[in-house]
């Protein structure tokens, strides 16, 4: 007979005793509780189908669970598994779809009952969970059963750390990838949903292990994760392409909330007491402090799309979720009067556009791309959280560059480079991204640019590096000659006494044969006295050591802190003779200090150690290399030398001059 309840379910006479007409939830629950225990597979299947449908109702679900119905569901699931693995009765039905339907209805009913939260997921037995997992891992299993099993596991993972560990251990990444490659869209969706649930519940280390645990299928996995990331990010496209509507009350309120959050504590007097003109003037002033270009009508700054309303969304998110950082950013820059203030609103709008370009928001998915970011899968609001980190990076980089409004584009170019370089490292979490991007400051960016420029000029190619090493001895000898020449020319020094800063002038120079140091007092205005006028001499052979800085005896005299620091940077002494007398120097400049200490070290048979030596060597090497590489312009330099050809089989190609003479 037909069961006329609008669902067009048909009941046979053989099962009418088990399925009474629907009246009250308790009667329905009692009837279905009996029906699912029937030995007649047709009755069991129809009862489970009806149960799956009615379990959406909370009252019915409560009645059924109170009758220990979930225990029967567990029993059916385990029984169906045993049948599937060799029961004779089941083998007879293996060619039909009945058993698959029983399993599907059972899992559907179970999932609907668990949705009401009457029973905790943690009360499930490990045996039942493993059976659900086994349905996912089986190759020959009905697609609807696998889809429902994946959905159950997806809901199970976030509920308990213990359940997460069990599912992560039992469901391999390779198996999920297999489901992602089938043509069944619903099965693909549930497999991806379970993968995302596992990634969200995992720690950073576990997330890394999940993503990189499948080496052979790395390309497929990377592509699927890229597609998921791309689709999720493209949800921002509508806001990105929508300009601000100045007549929208909601959008105007969002814009005003930025001003109120930043300056609500500044104004003790309520603006309602002001005239309309006064309020407009105050608002325009505050929007100017926020960094809007059109402070009288800030909505005009958001007319450009992209980034459109997405920039407003990001600013509001930043102000609401990190209010301290937002207030600090705005107030720190609005109170500056040295023209170095960083405009928050203008920076936010441009930064949003940069992030959209870097993350390809609004672009269609590539069929082959694999560029996904592991940290994307650990955040519910990835784009907004990334913006919060990067807008603070803008302020930090702005201060490092001591930028003004004229440097705005330059600063944002550096920020783009900081973000791009850090993303290329594939950080596994936003915290790690934040750490790495802040380490990559402006000075580091300059160093990287210099290194890359050298690579582009091929000055770091292996053959060029070998050439540098061959040129070094020759250029170091050139520097030595320059140092000795400077010592032969001599330098005018001032004597420093403990009584007064400057006492007398004296001159010191090296003899042309590099064997004697001549020195003596000179009068004011004498710049280069002849060597004969310098009465004192120190043979180079008698020189024992060179002292610098605080090792010198004349720097140990009492003096003021600043004066002593200046003296330490320029002081050096020559220890000579068997009595170990000292000739004390205070160089007029750091440059002269470097030249003299290098020259004296050479006379003592030691290496030149001043910072000027390395600077001069780098300049000379750079110039020499560029000159030598001029003939190789537009010719790529190989990293390895060409192979030496094999010797000829004979040497009979030599010309015989004896025959020519005859």
TrEMBL record:
Keywords: Apoptosis, Phagocytosis, SH3-binding. GO terms for biological process: actin filament organization; apoptotic process; cell motility; phagocytosis. One of its GO terms (molecular function) is SH3 domain binding. Pfam families: ELMO_ARM, ELMO_CED12, PH_12. SUPFAM superfamilies: ARM repeat, PH domain-like. It comes from the Eukaryota. The keyword ATP-binding does not apply. InterPro entries: ARM-like (IPR011989), ARM-type_fold (IPR016024), ELMO_ARM (IPR024574), ELMO_dom (IPR006816), ELMO_domain-containing (IPR050868), PH-like_dom_sf (IPR011993), PH_domain (IPR001849). Residues 250-423 form the ELMO domain. Involved in cytoskeletal rearrangements required for phagocytosis of apoptotic cells and cell motility. Acts in association with DOCK1 and CRK. Was initially proposed to be required in complex with DOCK1 to activate Rac Rho small GTPases. May enhance the guanine nucleotide exchange factor (GEF) activity of DOCK1. This is Engulfment and cell motility 3. It comes from Apteryx owenii.
